[in-house]
Design brief:
The structure is a single chain. With 414 residues, this protein is mostly beta strands. It has 2 domains: 267 residues, Sandwich (Immunoglobulin-like), CATH 2.60.40.420; 125 residues, Sandwich (Immunoglobulin-like), CATH 2.60.40. 13% of the residues lie in helices and 42% in strands. It has 6 helices and 25 strands. The strands form 4 sheets. Strands 1, 2, 3, 4, 5, 6, 7, 8, 9, 10, 11 and 14 form a 12-stranded mixed beta sheet that branches. The chain is globular, with a radius of gyration of 21 Å. 39% of the residues are buried. The structure holds copper (II) ion (CU). Copper (II) ion binds next to loops.
């Protein structure tokens, strides 16, 4: 989870890929006792966090409990220096994220009353905890008080790396898991690979639940129309987050905030009578067709119309330099003009105005692509407007690159 200001900043500065390359040594693989955990009570209310100002290092289990009336998350970052609350607040207000050394992860969506255990590995150092969701009045939860620095001491927690019942790997635009869930208390290891992504667990109540969830993810604005049970926040590639949750029969879905709209979700059902029986993972249907985009000597070759249905969008870079592209699904009724207008507002520093009228429903980053490299994303094309933005030269700042000429419309047609 990131709010749009976070996302836009990352888009504009081009740091989305480059600043997330750190990995963390995993814990010891020696004999592990399942009950050897170190618990830190983390309570979220509207709008503050309560947790100790100092905690030990190593494997730490955050027992996140939402005691408020709104949905909350607790994104954890290791900071480069010892920030006071006021300094952190100033950094966040000025959209300056240069304090981030490591994106650790932490508890994802928890709607009121929900509680779960989220375990991460913390090295000694300075950390901050932030909730970036949005209140109804448009202010971020951190602006209203949900941000605080804390310290991780050299004192070891003594906890072992948790043992997982199931493992979910988050790769760019897709997730995979080793097996499905049984009932009862299950520990799920979320492996972050290649891209900082988050994943949130939802109880599916009826056919509209997923749609409501995706709409909520689009603005992250209070109140959440669906019940979020637990979740994990974005973490640097190479890291693992463990979630311990008590599953009862029912229908569930894990959904990615960033890429849920592109189909990155994992739905499963635990039926009555299936208790403690392991169910097979859901099969993903393969794409029906390919949409090819080539950036070659003659420029960008792309189709202006794309047929609806499950497709694989492939982009190839036949130039000699490295480039990145962004692909947008626009909101209903929005066009290229709206995106151009919105980017101009951001570049003029009119963040609040720009954030108030974000024309896209979701975006994915394609690349960075070196010379002769290609990448792809699988998604279901709808009868709506899409935009391919690029090429963006990573050696230049986005401001230097920006021109309406890098905006290319692609329309989904029946
Ligand atoms: Cu919050």
């Amino acid at each position: 989870m990131k709010n749009f200001r976070f996302l836009i900043l990352l888009l504009l500065t081009g740091t989305f890929s480059s600043s997330f390359s750190q990995t963390v040594k995993s814990g010891s693989k020696a004999f592990e006792k399942p009950d050897s955990i170190y618990v830190v009570d983390l309570k979220a209310v509207d709008y503050a966090f309560a947790m100790p100002a100092e905690i030990p290092s190593g494997w730490i289990t955050f027992r996140m409990e939402n005691m408020g009336k709104q949905n909350h998350v607790a994104m954890i970052y290791r900071s480069k220096s010892d920030l006071s609350r006021e300094e952190l607040r100033n950094k966040l207000d000025s959209v300056n994220f240069d304090f981030i050394e490591t994106t650790v992860g932490g508890p994802g969506f928890h709607t009121p009353g929900n509680k779960s255990d989220i375990t991460v590995h913390l090295d000694p150092g300075n950390y901050v905890i932030i909730c970036g969701l949005q209140a109804e009045n448009g202010k971020s939860h951190y602006e209203l008080g949900m941000q605080m620095p804390f310290k991780v001491t050299k004192n070891p927690s003594g906890a072992a790396k948790p043992e997982a019942d199931t493992k979910i790997t988050l790769e760019k635009y897709k997730s995979s898991r080793t097996k499905t869930f049984a009932t009862g208390e299950q520990t799920v290891e979320i492996v972050h690979e290649g891209y900082p992504m988050d994943f949130h667990l939802l109880r599916v109540k009826d056919s509209t639940t997923i749609k409501k969830a995706l709409n909520y993810m689009n603005g992250l604005k209070d109140p959440s129309p669906v019940e979020w049970l637990t979740g994990v926040e974005q973490a640097d590639p190479g890291r693992s987050t463990f979630v311990t949750y008590n599953f009862t029969p029912g229908e569930y879905a894990w959904i990615s905030h960033e890429f849920g709209m592109w189909g990155m979700m994992d739905r499963f059902q635990i039926r009555k009578g299936d208790e403690n029986k392991e169910l097979p993972p859901v099969k993903q249907t393969p794409p029906e067709r390919e949409i090819k985009i080539t950036f070659g000597k003659k420029g960008l070759d792309y189709p202006e119309e794309i047929p609806t249905g499950k497709s694989r969008l492939i982009i190839e870079n036949k130039q000699t330099d490295e480039y990145v592209f962004h692909y947008f699904l626009l909101k209903e009724g929005k066009t290229e003009k709206d995106l151009i207008h919105n980017y101009n507002l951001f570049l003029q520093g009119k963040f609040e105005e720009a954030e108030a009228e974000i024309p896209w429903a979701s975006t994915v980053e394609l690349g960075p692509l070196g010379s002769m490299e290609e990448t792809h994303v699988d998604f279901k094309v709808e009868a709506r407007n899409y935009i391919l933005m690029g090429p963006i030269d990573l050696k230049q700042s986005f401001k230097e690159q920006w021109s309406p000429e890098i905006i290319h419309g692609m329309k989904g047609v029946e």
